Amino acid sequence: MSDFYQNGIITNFHNLTDRPVEDLEADLMRFSRKRPMSLILPSLYSELEGPALKHIVDELAKVPYLSEIVIGLDRADRDQFEHAKEFFSHLPQHHRILWNDGPRLRALDDELAEHGLAPMEPGKGRNVWYCSGYVQSSGIAEAVALHDCDIVTYDRSLLARLIYPVAHPQFHYEFCKGYYSRIAQGKLNGRVARLMVTPLIRALKKVYGPLPYLDYLDSYRYPLSGEFSMRTDVLADIRIPSDWGLEIGVLSEVHRNYSTKRLCQVDIADAYDHKHQPLSEEDALGGLNRMSLDIAKAMYRKLATLGVEIHGETFRTIKATYYRIALDLIETYYNDALMNGLTVDRHSEEAAVELFAGNIMDAGAAFLENPRDKPFIPSWNRVQAAVPDLLERMHEAVELDNQ
C-alpha cells in the first residue's frame, strides 16, 4: 500500500485499498462503450522466446475491455513473423502485428526517409512511433496504453490501473505514467532512476534554479517506467525520441503540449521486475552506460528549448553537484533497504554513480558538439502534412501482412 500524499505538481493516483481487478475491469467495460481502448506492445522477436511474454499474453487474453492490441515486432525474419502470428493468435481481442522488418513496412520507411521524416535509428522509440501511427490509422481507440513485454511479474491489474485515469469519461487527464517500486529477489533495483535521474534533476535545480520543467520531472515517482497511457489524440502531436531518452522525451513532450492538470501518474504494481540491463562500464554503446548518456542529453536538449543557456564550463558544476546529491541518496536508499530486509551493494552503487557522473560530462560535450542533432522522430501531424495518405497505406500494409 502506498501513501495518499499529493506532493508534486501532477495528480497522483494511489493504491489505497487494493481494489480487486474484477471491479476495475467492470468499470472499464462501462467506459469502453464511450471510450474504446487499445494496447501497444513494443517487442523484440527474442522476447517471444523469453519467460515473460507468454504469461503476459495469457493474462491479456482475460482482459474484457480492450478493443485492439497492436504489437510492434522488431528483428524478425519471415519465419519468425509467421511464428509471432501463431504466438499471438491466442488473444481473443482484435489484434495486429507490425512486422517492422518486413518488405511492406520497410518500403514505407524508405519513403519517409526520402522526405527526411523516417526514424534515424532502430530501437524501442522507432517501434513505438510506428505502432502509434497504426493506432491512429485504425481509428478504433480513443484511449491507448503501452507497456513493455519483459515484465516477469505481470498481471492484468497493471493494465487496468494504468489505463483507468485516461479511460474514465469524467476524468480530464490526457496522459498517465505508471509507477512502482523496483524490488526483486530481495534487492533494490532501478539504478538509473534512483542514482542518475533523480539526483541529476535536483542538481540541475540547484544550478539553474527552480524551473517549472524540473519541478515537473521531479514530481514523477518513476520517470523511467516503460508503462504509460494517453488519449489517442495525444499521439498525433508528440515527437518520440529514437534513443534511450524515450521515457524522458515523452514526459517532456506532454509537458510542452498540456497543462500539468491534465497529466497524472498511477501506482500500478506492488511488485515489478523485468529484464535487467548490465552497467556496461567498458561499452559506451550498451546497457546502463548508453542509457544514462542518452537520458542526460535528452534533459539538456529540453532545457535548451526552454531558453536555458548551457555552457561547457557549467557541466563541471552540474557533475560536482550531482555527485554529492547521488552519494547522499545512496546512504538514504541503503538505510531504507536495510529497514525493509533488502540488500543493496553500496560498492556497485557508488561505481554506478561514478559512471553516471562521467556520462553527465560526456553528454554535455556531445550536446554542444552537435547543435544540429535531430534526436526526435517527427510528429505524425508533420508526417501527414508531407505524405497525406501514408497512414492509410500503413494500415493496408499491416492488414496484408497479417492475412
Could you explain how this protein is built, in words?
This is Glycosyl transferase. The radius of gyration is 21 Å and the shape is globular. Helix content is 49%, strand content 13%. Strand 3, helix 3 and strand 4 form a beta-alpha-beta unit. It has one domain: Spore Coat Polysaccharide Biosynthesis Protein SpsA, Chain A. The chain is an alpha/beta fold and 403 residues long. The termini are far apart.
Brief synopsis:
This protein is of the alpha/beta class. It has one domain: Spore Coat Polysaccharide Biosynthesis Protein SpsA, Chain A.
Query: With helices defined by DSSP (H or I, 4 residues minimum), what is the helix count?
Result: 14
CATH architecture: Alpha-Beta Complex
CATH class reads Alpha Beta
Radius of gyration from the alpha-carbon trace, in angstroms: 21 Å
Ranges where pLDDT stays below 50 over 5 or more residues in a row are none
Mean of residue pLDDT?
A: 92
Strand pairing plus helix content: what structural class?
alpha/beta
Distance between the termini: 45 Å
Let me know the largest β-sheet.
Answer: 8 strands, mixed
Number of domains: 1
Q: What is the helix content?
A: 40-55%
- What's the arrangement of strands in the largest beta sheet? 1-11-6-9-5-2-3-4
Number of strands: 12
| CATH-defined fold name | Spore Coat Polysaccharide Biosynthesis Protein SpsA, Chain A
Secondary-structure element series:
EHEHEHEHHEHEEEHHEEHEHHHEHH
Estimate the strand proportion: 5-15%
How does the overall form come out from the CA principal axes? Answer: globular
CATH superfamily: Spore Coat Polysaccharide Biosynthesis Protein SpsA, Chain A
